[in-house]
Amino acid sequence: MQFLSFLDMQNSKICIVGLGYVGLPLACLCAKKAFTTFGYDINNKVIEELKKGETIINEQSLKEKLALVKDKITFSSSPQIIKEADVVVVCVPTPINEQYRPNLEPLISSIKTVKQYIKPGALIILESTIFPGTSEEVVLPLLKPLLLGTDFYLAHCPERIDPGNKTWNISNIPRVVGGITEECSKKATELYKLILDADVLQLNSIKAAEATKIMENSFRDVNIAFMNEMAKSFQSLGIDISEVIKAASTKPFAFMPHYPGCGVGGHCIPVDPYYLIEKAKQSGFDHKFLALARDINNSMPLYTVNLIVDGLNKAGKAVNGSKILILGLAYKPNVNDMRESPSFEIIKQLKKKGANLIIFDPHVLEKSDVVSLDEVKECDCVVLVTSHHDFKKITPDVLMQKQVRVVVDGRNFFDKQSIVSKEIIYKGIGR
Ligand code: SAJ
Questions:
Q1: 212 exposure class (CB count in 10 Å sphere: 0-12, 13-18, 19+)
Q2: 157 given a catalytic annotation
Q3: CA separation, residue 416 to residues 45, 229, 237, 406, 412 (Å)
Q4: Statement: the pTM of the whole predicted model exceeds 0.90
Q5: How far apart are CA 94 and CA 106, in angstroms?
Q6: What are the extents of the domains in the chain?
Q7: Which numbered atom of ligand 1 lies nearest the CA of 223?
């Protein structure tokens, strides 16, 4: 297959394997850029909804993009559709299991399917987050006896989707690409330069591309852990960490604010470091720092529960029997994604202590006990887990009306002074 040129764009066909929060935006973008675009997913329900121009992904901008191009994408749950494609982009989940070990099953089964139907000479691109070495040690062997450079080409372009981000989207986020061979790298780089309106950096190896995403997200995890440890320290010293972060941020260089919280959720940040930790172990290196950061971040839900215990005790109450309103199930603001959300551990621990819980997340009403805060007439304690914009309307007066005694602010979201001024006990994370 010749390198893709702009003229070839309309002739080349792209199949996206896995139509979740990574694959679906990519399929929409390819269709918008006039590629003949196929969308394949094993979940027939997902396919049926997409054929109607609907998606369970609760992101307005994606829904709008899908509505514009839905008739330009051929959606199917039959892998036969892969046969048509000159390019196959694999965007399937790579979660971790209970023991924090990478679960490559979805990737492995996808590759086996792709192998069965791949068009000779097609370019296979992996966007799923994988540990350095996965492409060469796991994916390549699965594609045997197909011949690299004849039957297929293989490259990795780590996904950088940030659901809900209004500034950075799949089209304008710069990307990095690495292939098994120079030719693989060039083909994949050429492709992304055609699809994206952003810089595309071609790396010298596929391992470098695999390591890039892991570094990006491990960087974020350790910085969050740093702030979580500072928060614990400042809480004991009576220092307001929010004020100190704001102060440190006035330094115009060499400081990058991150924020303490009741836990680190999502499908990337709390997951990706484990990929490197596990892989490095195999080569005899122990990522003490990454592992420590993970332990610190994993300790935050319990730290938050202890703040709830202390706050209620200060109000002369026990958790047992207290009415506690949990605000937020999603792992980050203004989305409905609950993966790895700290809310679940907090809820589990409070239930164990006999709390009477009311759960409310305006973005996850199907898992909420109430559909509006108006339904909550009174409660002893309010715990904010997710800083949804909707919660801005919870003023100290609203708290007073509901006879709230304690506020535990898991994201340092509320105005502490205004709450304290109403003689409501306030516990933040490091403030
Ligand atoms: N969190 C903190 N403190 C912080 C930042 C985040 O506790 O300072 C928590 C959030 O509450 C959440 C979790 O960490 O529970 C993850 O938050 P996130 O903002 O990192 O959100 P994600 O998981 O959607 O991260 C994505 C990542 N993008 C990709 O992997 C392609 C990440 O690399 C981005 O940095 C991040 O979006 C972003 O910047 O928004």
A1: buried
A2: no
A3: 46, 20, 17, 12, 8
A4: yes
A5: 7
A6: 6-204, 299-428
A7: 8
One of 30, 184, 262, 268 is an active-site residue; which one? 268
Residue nearest to atom 37 of ligand 1 (CA): 162
Q: How far is the CA of 310 from the centre of ligand 1 (A)?
A: 29
In whole angstroms, how far apart are CA 145 and each of 115, 150, 152? Answer: 10, 11, 11
pLDDT digits (tens, 9 = 90+) for 259-299: 999 999 998 999 999 999 999 999 999 999 999 999 999 99
Are the beta carbons of 15 and 82 closer than 8 angstroms? yes
CA of 84 to the centre of ligand 1 (A): 36
Ligand 1: centre distance to CA 204 (Å): 28
The CA-to-CA distance between both ends of the chain, in Å, stands at 60
pLDDT in tens, 185-212: 999 999 999 999 999 999 999 999 999 9
* CA angle (136, 140, 143) in 5-degree steps: 175
Fold agreement (6-204, 299-428)? yes
Give, using CA atoms, the residue closest to atom 23 of ligand 1. 266
Q: Which fold has domain 6-204?
A: Rossmann fold (3.40.50)
* Tokens of residue 303, six digits: 């730290």
CA–centroid distance, residue 353 to ligand 1 (Å): 30
**Domain 299-428, CATH class in plain words:** alpha beta
The size of the chain, in residues, is 431
Nearest CA to ligand 1 atom 31: 160
